[in-house]
Amino acid sequence: QDVRIGAGSTPAASCGVACLQAPGGSIRIAAVGEARTVPVDLRSYVPGTAGHVDIAPNVLVDARGNRTGTVVIRGGDIQLGAARLRADLAGSGAVGQAIDVAGGGTLRLDGTVMDVSTDGPRRTGSIALSAQNLVATRGTTLTTAPCSGCSGGAGGAIRLDAANLLDLSGTGVVLSTQTANPLAAGNIDLRADQIR
Question: pTM value?
Answer without folding.
Answer: 0.88
